[in-house]
Amino acid sequence: MTKGFMPKENHQILFTKNRLKMSKVTVVIDGRKIVADTDETILEVAKNNGIEILTMCHLKGITDVGACRLCIVELEGSPRLFSACTTHVADNMVVTTNSERIKRYQRITTELFFAERNHMCAVCVSNGACELQNLGYKVGMEAIRYPHLFPQCDVDTSHDFFVMDHNRCISCTRCVRVCAEVEGAYNWDVMNRGYHIRIISDFNTPWGESTTCTSCGKCVQACPTGALWSKSIVQGQQSKHPEMITELVERRSMKL
Amino acid sequence: MNRFDFKNIVQAEKAKEQNAHTKNKILVCCGAGCISSGSEDVLKKLQEEIKNRELEDVEIIPTGCMGPCNQGPLVKFNPRNTIYQKVDCTNIGEVVKSQIVDKKPLEDMLLFAESREKPFVNANEDPYYKKQMKIALKDCGDVHPERIEDYLLHDGYKALDKALFEMSPEDVIAEMKHSRLRGRGGAGYPTGLKWETVYRYVNDPKYVICNGDEGDPGAFMDRSVLEGNPHRVLEGMTIAAYAIGASKGFAYIRGEYPLAIKRFEMAIRQAKKMGVLGARILGTDFSFDVEVRIGAGAFVCGEETALIASIEGKRGTPRPRPPYPAESGLWGKPTLINNVETMASVAPIILNGGEWYSEIGTAKSAGTKVFALAGKINHAGLIEVPMGTTLREIVFDIGGGIQGGGQFKAAQTGGPSGGCIPVEHLDVKMDYEELMKLGSIMGSGGLIVMDETSDMVDVARFFMEFCVDESCGKCVPCRVGTKMMHDLLQKVCENKATQLDIERLEELAVYVKECSLCGLGGSAPNPLLSTLRHFRHEYDERVHAERKSSNLIH
Q1: Nearest CB to A193: which of B470, B484, B511?
Q2: Position B121 confidence tier, pLDDT thresholds 50, 70, 90
Q3: What's the Rg (C-alpha) of chain B?
Q4: Contacts of B487 in chain A (CB under 8 A)
Q5: Which of A38, A54, A88, B294 could bond to A70 as cystine, CB 3.0-4.6 Å?
């Protein structure tokens, strides 16, 4: 996790000792002056202040990886784009979350998500409760301008209660992180590189034969799309509650 | 072993060398290039030959890369510095006879005999070597890479001795900053500044990593340095560790370089025995240990955060920066990562001073750079030139021009992260800034020369295919974007693209460049963008061709 934004010119302010000390800083997000803590990320600060930043691989309660590139923001003084979920705020940081450039890029990202695998909402269990579908509405996606890749993906139905449909997977790795960090079972992992990337159970064994899976179902709740769903659910009936993961993590850390 | 013992050993070695200074030395190139063209057999045959002829004052030394790899196997005769090319088991006897017994060089087989009117008996007088300046590669091709004693003769570990006993860590960093050395891995971040940043973080233990995961197609300088002079890299790492206060180092070498791994591990063992590595180096309180980690073949593991993940035993995928490894790297500790070539440049800088190094090269890029010449060029191989040498000098004076007398069309620098330099910019001064202006990058130093038969769209497609294969799949722009761009380029190559496809390509290229998580995606569109910029007509021709053919059908 990132502990602070590092301006290239100034190397003096960033020593670990100073970093660990939490202090108040002022940041400007989309023209609004906001007071924030240094241990907060740009995403957290924005969310607490009612500024919406689109996310996909982010789920509060598990480690952020900055992989989906939807939460990219512009920082004044840097030509690079930064992922809001992994960049911590620093004093006098000027953040732009809604420029034309960012909106355009978010739309391309969404289109690429849809074009990568077989996302057919009409026949999907998560139709109506899908974060990817919502994202499409939010960015105003009317058509996918890129050719669909339509890869041949498996559907793993070997588990007693759940199904893994790789056709709907967007490789956000939320299931992987939830399984490792919240459940501690380490059932899920990632295989292959590039666009051949696949989420696997154990050492690429069928999910039903997994020796690590506890059948807790947290991955199903964390999954933003219809890639993971409960058996005996029909089209459009799967509801997802990723916020239960956040709640669970928060309650665990509560002092009684 | 303390400093006194070490100095005695060095002196004893030097005395031994002086007593035998009249001796003939035959150096056989045993770099990976020459080995693959049969230099190990030549070495065996040569040893037999010397035995049969009962020549006594001859010493045979297998060495690292000598440079012109496609002329191999190369055999060098010292002290006259005569290099013979394309030596094999059938003609080595003849070479030995004329060179050592008759003392008359065999002109037909001298280096570049076919392209020079009169080949040079002393190879250093050949323009190929004359135009070069060897710092990182200095002892490559002269020392026995598997003997530390040979390295000691070439001022080996003298810089370490100087750093440990005459300089404080701050002095070492100041010297590095003064040298203006920039990271040779590609990005060109000032090395001294990086060292200082790591030095200033108070968090123990700190780590030093040497990045030898050289993955660019057509680049092989790290390999040659590691194979030719592993002790130089080890010395650089030890000096870096002393400067930043690290006690543990890792050399991450890709698994495709078994010889480099073998020789580097051998170097570590020898250095420990000699007391220049391990606990209480040269009797001081400074201890430093190095371990080799072998890369499993992923290109992305050359990216520093992915490399760190790989060493930690995790899946080799990058993570967003900041925090930079200088603050939170290996196991969350401050970590210094430098490329092999950067590490190899450290010892000469400490020995000769930062001032000396900063005077070489251009105003913004100091020192020398190793380039791996490949493609349609006569003298393919490894060269080292001062920064600011023009591309023309590299291709025509050193590289000997285009194969078969063809026309120069473009030079591709920086591998899949770089771009193409067209013929109009043949006089570009090769340094970080100038190449950036042309839409290319210095990269690790691969330089692929193309002639008029090369199809630039296909070149862009080839490099994109490489990036599709090597993308780790973590972030969307790189995972899907490169695949989309590749498919569109494929369409252009097949003359099926429309103008709209070219516009989409351009849009995607800028998107992938700006949005990707790491440097792989961030630079993957560079070959496409630079060919679009300099060879737009080749794209347009294909689009037009498609239109014409469709007109015919209607």
Answers
A1: B470
A2: confident
A3: 25
A4: 147
A5: A54
List residues bridging with A75 in a β-sheet.
A95
CA distance B116 to B68: 15
Q: Name the nearest CA neighbour of B129 among B444, B182, B27, B119.
A: B119
Residue A7 pLDDT: 43
Which of A12-26, A138-152, B82-96, B261-275 is predicted with the least confidence, judged by mean pLDDT?
A12-26
Mean pLDDT for the stretch of residues B222-229: 92
Over residues B109-126, mean pLDDT = 85
Note whether B515 contacts A81, CB cutoff 8 Å: yes
CA-to-CA distance for A148 and B422, rounded, in angstroms?
35
- The closest CB to that of A193, out of B473, B476, B484, belongs to B473
Residue A222: other Cβ atoms inside 10 A: 26
Q: What is the mean pLDDT of residues A59-85?
A: 93
Q: How many CB pairs under 8 A join A and B?
A: 121
Residue-level pLDDT at B124? 86
Please give the pLDDT value at position A18. 46
The topology (CATH level 3) of A104-239 is: Alpha-Beta Plaits (3.30.70)
Mutate one of B335, B480, B492, B504 to test the A interface: name it (highest A CB count within 10 A): B480
Taking CA–CA distances from B510, the nearest residue in chain A reads A105
Give the pLDDT of residue B95. 86
Q: Averaged over A109-124, what is the pLDDT?
A: 93
Q: What is the ipTM of this complex?
A: 0.90
Q: Which residues of chain A are within 8 Å of residue B476 when distances are taken between CB atoms?
A: 67-69, 109, 112-113, 116, 170
Q: How confident is the model at residue A159, as a pLDDT?
A: 95
Q: Kindly determine whether residue A116 and residue B201, on different chains, have CB atoms separated by under 8 Å.
A: no
Cis (ω within 30 of 0) for the bond into B169?
A: no
Q: Which of A9-13, A150-154, B162-166 has the lowest mean pLDDT?
A: A9-13
CA–CA separation, A200 vs B87, rounded Å?
53
Tell me: pLDDT of B546 over 70. Answer: no
Nearest CA in chain A to B484: A146
Q: Is B337 exposed, middle or buried (0-12, 13-18, 19+ CB in 10 A)?
A: buried
Annotated domain spans of chain A: 23-98, 104-239
The full set of domains in chain B, from first to last, is: 3-127 (3.40.30.10), 148-358 (3.40.50.11540), 368-451 (3.10.20.600), 457-553 (1.20.1440.230)
Q: Do B473 and A194 touch (CB under 8 A)?
A: yes
Q: Using alpha carbons only, give the angle B393, B395, B400 rounded to the nearest 5 degrees.
A: 100
* Residue A11 confidence (pLDDT) above 60: no
CATH number assigned to the domain with residue range A23-98, chosen from the 4 options 3.30.365.10, 3.10.20.740, 3.40.50.150, 3.40.50.720: 3.10.20.740
pLDDT digits (tens, 9 = 90+) for B388-406: 999 999 999 999 899 988 8
Q: Which among B324, B470, B475 has the least Cβ separation from residue A69? A: B475
**pLDDT band at residue A20 using 50, 70 and 90 as cut-offs:** low
Asked if A190 lies within 8 A of B473 by C-beta distance, the reply is yes
Q: Do A147 and B322 touch (CB under 8 A)?
A: no
For residues A180 and B405, give the distance between their C-alpha atoms in angstroms, rounded to a whole number. 61
Question: Contact B322/A72, CB-based, under 8 Å?
Answer: no
Contact residues of A toward B, CB < 8 A: 2-6, 11, 14-17, 65-69, 72, 80-83, 86-87, 104-105, 108-109, 112-113, 115-116, 145-147, 149, 170-171, 189-190, 192-197
Whether the pLDDT of residue B1 is over 90: the answer is no
For residues B263-288, give the mean pLDDT. Answer: 94
Tokens of B392: 């023309």
CA distances from B79 to A38, B24, B434, B548 (A): 65, 7, 40, 66
Q: pLDDT category, B262, cuts 50, 70, 90?
A: very high
B38 touches B90 (CB < 8 A): no
